[in-house]
Amino acid sequence: MPAIVAVRCVLLSSPYADADDPEIKECFPNGPKRTIGMVEITLDNGVNGLGEGYLAVFAPLVFQSIVDLCIPQVIGKDGFDIARRLKDLRSLCDYWSLQGAARHVIAAFEIALQDAKGKSLGVPVYELLGGAKAESIKIYGSGGCCDAKEQFLREMDLLDSLGITIYKIRSVKRDILRTAWAMNEAGRRGISVGVDMCQNLADPPQKVDEVVNFVTAVHALTDHRMMFVEEAIGPDAPEGFKELRSRIDVQVCGGEIITTPKEMIERIRNDVYEFVQPDASVMGGISAVMEVFEAAQAHGTGVVVHAWGGAAAIMASYHAAFAAGGELVEYPMLDFPLGAEMIGDQGRIVDGRLLRPTAPGLGLTLTSEMEARYPFDSTAIYNCVLFDWGPPPDSYWKT
To answer: How would DSSP label each residue in 321-346?
Structure first.
């Protein structure tokens, strides 16, 4: 079987969203540019594969350092024995990072190996996992980081152009009039709205009572109903999610930051969420997401993969969804030229559905010329210590 002959850490930075976007004002203190971190693995058959760890969006040099630590563990080894390579990497990292940063890096290696194997065999990655279960999957638009009406309307126009009928917006407990306004505007277009409350970034996070009051207040102002609430409670409070499920008639979901299948499967079996949101670039790779799908399907819990990284992260989760029979996936709406260029025509959306990718491996494109156009900028990081950018008062959204 092909041996691994080279491994390269690739850090690239690309323009992202625009300076007026609230996510930029709140989380990107150095302006509208974002970094991604990838592992490129080359086999002795000349094929290379790309994988991504979400960690690099936040701490690119930490990502690079852990990649460098891992490289000697895989050089010269069988590139097709992905399970064994993962076992070796976990042996190297689990003592000091059973959860957290190392799992993102292990994910990058696993995804790169899946990509290289698929390309070597001339098949898409989902074929390595048992084949695609559908020709297309329903997709929802993920955006709504808006503090002006025209921003929302621009995103809704994009959804209309793609035939997408589900829209996820970002809101917190103070955003009652804003959320109702967005739901009413979307509803006029036949678009349902889910709400991401972003409590992974809050310290302290919202309380269950506050979320219940928020949902009740919003629903009192509109005939439409939230499709789901995501990350409405802090990530370390699974019992809070369970309580919330018992108190509102809205789907409760979460799990994008969970870094091991074991923890997510425990939450599935504990009925913490209506549906879970694993991310291949966070959890240890595509195989980890497949484990989650298997456990969730056995328990009757939904799975909607998280997709907010770069191209390799997104396509890894999409391939897992196709192989596992996923029924809904996420489409990140904020402009990220590097990601779009790498994905090319392998992420086509028609009539609100993601078409099955057909290229070997993950179907990604990365050339030296592209790398030269998107050089790494060490200041282009996502800062989780949120800045108060002065959003308009909720009264702005009165109609």
So the answer is: HHHHT-SEEEEE-S--HHHHHHHGGG
**Distance between CA atoms of 26 and 338, rounded to whole angstroms?**
22
Q: Which two tokens stand for residue 241?
A: 């999610």
Say which residue the tokens 């930029």 belong to. Answer: 24
Give the H/E segment covering residue 349.
Answer: strand 349-350
What single DSSP character describes residue 361? B
What tokens does 261 get? 């299948």
DSSP 388: -
Task: Write out pLDDT tens, residues 87-102.
Answer: 999 999 999 999 999 9
Domain ranges of the chain: 4-123, 127-365
**What is the rounded distance in angstroms from the CA atom of residue 289 to the CA atom of residue 307?**
12
Are 81 and 117 in contact by the 8 Å Cβ rule? The answer is: no
What is the reported pTM?
0.98
CATH topology assigned to domain 127-365: TIM Barrel (3.20.20)
Q: Which two tokens stand for residue 44?
A: 């002795």
Sequence-separated (6 or more) residues with CB below 8 Å from residue 86? 106, 109, 110, 284, 285, 287
**Does CATH place domain 4-123 in 1.10.3720.10?**
no
